[in-house]
Write a structure and sequence with these properties.
14 helices; ABC transporter involved in vitamin B12 uptake, BtuC; 77% helix; mainly alpha
């Protein structure tokens, strides 16, 4: 049954992505039927589809896939089911790097400065996390290390807000921090695409090393796996993928936590087997959440980060309760 699921689950995820992409181009305050897509600009709704919703859909696929894959890679490397970029402070580190460019006004100098700062922040967050916790640390130590990083980065962001030179800078930082895909354009896709693609490729190459680490560090070394190289590649991959995502959408949490756990009962616990499905599952979850927030009957669109937190926080609590019961 599980061998069959190795092919069945990715196939179902790809089918779900195809359906959601079609729905994403239609759904919103203004519904766009098929005839508006092929009007070639004659229908005013054609501009809505290809100018607004298509870039938003592509960003949801890229960002969701990057977050899902990063979560699976971090969980596989640390052998820790609670590892996730948002929970462990990696997203906050990327956010701090980006916020500093907004605070200093450097982001307006060149379009590449903000994503570069977010990538550097994410990379430093991953390296600090590994240094504080170690690969063989307990769950409590690992979560505590992530909490420390998140607290320090949150304090830095709060300080930037408190010392912002004018109200417009505060509004820009706050609006950016509340992760969302609304009003994103082709320019944001161009900014995020290189880092997400390269970072995801690097993480996908770690499947064999992550599988070997299930035997422990000594077992992995006996199989010829370089732990130093694996750690460096993991830091580079997560920094590029998460940093590029945070740079264009702000912080969107819990995707990397939820997706691997939903897939593990179907695909097993081998970390390498979860990488590709987690990439697809993250894209499915993020795109579905983005469609949902567009359809909420509110005067203003709910931020995607709020929707993910509303879904992820109860899931996180359920995981903690389940782990406590197993350890009792």
């Amino acid at each position: 049954m599980r061998t069959r699921s190795v092919w069945l689950v990715p196939g179902l995820l790809i089918a779900a992505l195809a359906v959601l992409c079609m729905l994403s181009l239609c759904a919103g305050r203004v519904w766009t039927p098929w005839n508006a897509w092929v009007s070639g600009g004659a229908d005013p709704r054609w501009a809505i589809v290809f100018g607004l919703r298509l870039p938003r859909t592509v960003l949801a696929l890229m960002v969701g896939g990057a977050l899902g894959l990063s979560g699976a890679a971090l969980q596989g490397y640390t052998r820790n089911p609670l590892a996730e970029p948002g929970v462990l402070g990696v997203s906050s580190s990327a956010a701090l790097g980006a916020v500093l460019t907004l605070y200093l006004g450097a982001a307006s100098e060149a379009h590449w400065i903000l994503p570069a700062a977010a990538m550097v922040g994410a990379g430093l967050g991953v390296v600090t996390l590994m240094a504080l916790s170690g690969a063989t640390s307990s769950i409590v130590t690992f979560i505590l290390a992530g909490f420390i990083i998140q607290t320090v980065c949150t304090a830095g962001i709060s300080l930037a807000l408190n010392l912002a030179p004018n109200p417009w800078a505060v509004d820009e930082i706050v609006s950016w921090l509340m992760g969302s895909l609304a009003d994103r354009s082709v320019e944001e896709v161009r900014i995020a695409a290189p880092g997400v693609i390269v970072g995801s490729f690097v993480l996908l190459t770690l499947g064999r090393a992550l599988d070997a680490l299930t035997l422990g560090e000594q077992g992995a070394r006996s199989l010829g796996v370089s732990l130093t190289r694996t750690r460096i590649l993991l830091a580079i991959g997560v920094a590029l993928a998460v940093g590029s995502s945070v740079a264009v959408t702000g912080v969107i949490g819990f995707v990397g936590l939820i997706v691997p756990h939903l897939l593990r009962p179907w695909l097993g616990s081998r970390p390498g087997a979860l990488l590709w499905p987690s990439l697809l599952g993250g894209a499915v979850l993020t795109l579905a959440g983005d469609i949902l927030v567009r359809l909420t009957p509110a005067a203003e669109e709910v931020k995607l980060s709020v929707a993910m937190a509303a879904l992820g926080a109860p899931f996180f609590l359920w995981m903690l309760v389940s782990m406590r019961r197993r350890l009792a």
